[in-house]
Specification:
9 strands; globular; alpha+beta; 6 helices; six-stranded antiparallel beta sheet
Amino acid sequence: MVLESESLLEGGRLEDPSSLSAARPALTLEHVKLDRPTMDDAADIVFLANNRRVAEMLANMPHPYGLAAARNWIESTRNTEPGTASYAVRLKSTGRIIGACGYQFGPVGHGREPELGYWIGEPFWGHGYATEAAQAVIDHAFTVAGHETIAASCRLTNPASRRVIEKCGFQYRGSGVMRSLAHGGSMVPVETYILDRKTWDALKGWRSVG
């Protein structure tokens, strides 16, 4: 997830400057829009998230995934922890939610640095939407939240997510494990990555990676 400097995102538009106080501006990008989810999105979230192929690649998505889980997630985005952000990812052409993207403190960074997280519903895979959203959220983490580093991780069995992480300029840090709700709370192996401000600044504009 990511944003840019002058306008918070090259090719994007800051729609509500006053929302900077909440560190969560809405962003209109080339193909997707990032904003806050609403309860009207709940049914669409369930349709996309109630998919084992999605849930098994994530730490905190249960399977099965029902309306209660969707509503709890929507509610949780209204009061995010300082230094974090959580967005709905919408298809720009329709306004319908297609996934989510953000950053929070968690086990990969051991609470010291925020971690990038994202998912896109299976009908929308293969179009670059995850990369576009991730780059915008990463920019937000550095530009608005003022972080110096951001972490990311992916399952060993998820080459598509690995490509997103690499396109965003992350450097491989090592192997690790994460607890997966979709696997009954079991620990599963992951690759961990790190992106620092110096590298991000060199890649700003996202034309030099991938």
